[in-house]
Amino acid sequence: MPELPEVETTCQGIAPHVTGQTIQTVIVREARMRWPVSPEIEDLSKETILSVSRRAKYILLTFESGTLLIHLGMSGSLRVIDPAADLRKHDHVLITLSNGLELRYHDPRRFGCLLWTSESPHLHPLIQHLGPEPLSEDFTAETLKTAAQKKKTTIKQLIMDGKVVVGVGNIYACEALFQAGIHPKRKAAAISLTRLDTLTNEIKAVLARSIKQGGTTLRDFLREDGTAGYFKQQLAVYDREGEACLSCDTPIKRVVLGQRSTFFCPKCQK
Hints:
CATH topology of the largest domain: Helicase, Ruva Protein, domain 3
Helix content: 10-25%
Strand order of the largest sheet: 1-6-7-5
Radius of gyration: 20 Å
CATH class of the largest domain: Mainly Alpha
Order of helices and strands: HEEEEEEEEHHHHEE
Distance between the termini: 28 Å
Shape: elongated
Number of domains: 2
Structural class: alpha+beta
Strand content: 15-25%
CATH architecture of the largest domain: Orthogonal Bundle
């Protein structure tokens, strides 16, 4: 599924084309998503998109009257495209802009959402209880240490908890733990502040690299212009079970934690 770098890449990709543009028409071809598409969306004609931003994996399109929250779900994408381009089967929402372009929401599995709020998006029930952004100054070793004392869990499950820190999905959790040399099954509360500091820095680094390179393409994620991301080429452990560790040649192992496949080097990670 699209993770934080893919969502950030999408935001950066569509922002120059949609910011400041007035909506001409909105066509909802399929309203049955994870939650029904908010009917207010079809009343956005003549409204102007003031900004494009991101909170966790939610894309926020801000208007004078409120905010459109978009989540890409398991297989969704947003593309800025010529309205004359052929429609695909799973192009569910079409937003035509004053510059002649069209913003298309595509989601084969329909597990994403397009929800409207007239209040601050940060007060929305899906957002208000989320933890700090991983690339912000609010995410530190100290915040991880405090959370670890409250939650008796493994370090991988801790950093994937959206109430502790947002957007550290399975791929990036595996990669950051490898770079930090920390075994994913280690109890979070037993890890020193020094090692947690290394981990927070590696989380920031691996996410920043992925954003710079365009997001990780796995299965059906495409960037806003339809091209693939490139970070998958640099994955050190994720989806490499049985392959040699890039550092020590030990075969990469896989275990299941919290119902998620977890990849690690049994020699490099302690």
